[in-house]
Amino acid sequence: WWLMIKSNIFLKGLFSIKRLDSPAIALGASFVAIGALLKNVGFTIQESIFSSFLIYALPGSLVLAESIFIGASLINIFLAVWLVNARLYPLTVSLMPLVMTKKHPRWKYVLSCHFVAVSPWLIMKSNYKKIPKEYRIDYWIGIGSATVSVSVIGTFIGFSFSEYLNKDMMMGLAILNPVYFLCMMVGAAKTIQITLSVALGLILGPIIYLFSPEWSILSAGVIG
User: Fold this and answer.
1) Between 19 and 138, the higher pLDDT residue
2) What pLDDT band is residue 189 in, cutting at 50, 70 and 90?
C-alpha cells in the first residue's frame, strides 16, 4: 500500500498539522484526557493505545471509557461506539468525491476511510484545492496518519501522567476539541443555513436538556 503513495504529497499532508491553528493541537490535548480516563477504568497502556488507534475519533473513545465504567456489556459498548462514530458518515460522503479518481484502486480509499474524523476533515477541506486531484488521496492519508499519531501520543501522555490530572483538568482537556470545532463552525458560517444550524444547536441544547437530558444533544443536533 505504502509503495503506491506519492511520498512528497504524503509528507505535505503529514506536516499539515504543524500550524498553530491546527485542530490537531486540540485533538492531542483531548486524548491526554482520554489516556488518563482509560487508565482510571482499568485499561493497560497497550489497551489504551490500541483503542485510540482503532476508535480514533474522540467521542467514540469517551463513550468506550464511560460504558466500561458503568459496567455495560460488550455488545452494548460495541453498538454505542458504532452509533457515535456513525456521525462521520456525512463527512465521508462529502470527502470522497474530492479525492477519488480512477488512478487508484478502490481498496486504497476504503482503508483510508479509517482516518475520517472532524480534525483531519477540517484540514483536508481547507487545503484540498492546493493539491492536484489525482494526489489528494495521498495527501489525505498523510493528514490521517498525522492525526492518528497525535491521538496515540496524547493517549500515552495522559496514561503516563494520569496521577497529575484531577477530574476538572480532564474535563477541561476533553472539551477543548468540541470548543475548537464550534469556533471553526462559527468562522465558517458564511451562509444563513450554517448560521441557523449553529445557532439552533446552541440555543436548543440547554432548553431540551431541562426536559430530557438523555436526548438533548441528539435532538438539538437533528433539529439544527
Assistant:
1) 138
2) low
**Can you read off the three cell numbers belonging to residue 108?**
486504497
The three-state DSSP-derived secondary structure of the chain is: CHHHCCHHHHHHHHHHHHCCCCHHHHHHHHHHHHHHHHHHCCCCHHHHHHHHHHHCCHHHHHHHHHHHHCCCCHHHHHHHHHHHHHHHHHHHHHHHHHHCCCCCCHHHHHHHHHHCCHHHHHHHHHHHHHCCHHHHHHHHHHHHHHHHHHHHHHHHHHHHCHHHCCHHHHHHHHHHHHHHHHHHHHHCCCCHHHHHHHHHHHHHHHHHHHHCHHHHHHHHHHHC
Cα–Cα dist 203/220, whole Å: 8
